[in-house]
Amino acid sequence: MEQNGVARQQRANYTYKRKNHSKLYEVPATETKLRLSGFEKTLIISGILISFVLMVSLVSAKNSLNVSERSFQKTSTQNVKLKNETQSMSQELDGLENSAIARVVEKDQLSIDNASVREIKR
Question: What does pTM read for this prediction?
Fold first, then answer.
């Protein structure tokens, strides 16, 4: 801890020489200011602007991703609904076919033997 205090005292006692319109004068170290060059200012400002643009584009991309996910979910739900409806209609059609076959068999007084019936796959 004592070393920090000694270092501060030595720094405060040190003086810099600075030119001002061809005059040399001494300035205590505590009064010197670190100035940024134009390039450094431009670099800092452009870094801030690039960071801001990247943040805005990230938020925009996240929002568009959420919209796409909702759209995909809606389409997926419609697809499942249509698939279930198609399956239900297919079962209903099979039932109607069986009842129509049964009516024809009864009308013409035929018999259906399971051994002689061939299964036709679609």
Answer: 0.48
